[in-house]
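tool=predict chain=A
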Amino acid sequence: MNPKYLSKPAKLVVLAAILSYGATLHATTSPTAQALSVSIADQNEFQPMAFSDSAEAGMLRSVYHILATGDHDYKGHRVKAMKSVEAAGTLLGMDLRGDDKDHQPQVLSDDKLREAGGLLSNVLGSSEVKDQKRIAKHITEAINQINVALSKK
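tool=predict ok
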């Protein structure tokens, strides 16, 4: 609506409505209302969760299992990725060790490594958001080793 087309009485009605709304808005942001909203915000404030108790920790366990059951034909990069995931797990108080004996054919192993890389990308994003630089460093190294492993054929 263009103000040029409003008559003078209509402009006064619009101005009165705006001023009335402003007064209502000011009343709702009074110190009492602000104190009430602050106490509600405190109750709903984000509570940080221990990283080791999170979904990301479960993803790390899955990644480690995927890598542990992978084929050995990656010129050591699968094992290096496992060691990086294990180091991240150790920082989180998780015990991730061992190499499963249930190895898979190369094609399935490649698919599983790609899946592990995707899970690690999720964990990396969460570790960066949660400012876990030491964990992010190990996760990044594991992703790099998986990428190198998949390029070795």
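Residues 6 and 149 are 72 Å apart (CA to CA). Residues 51-151 form one domain.
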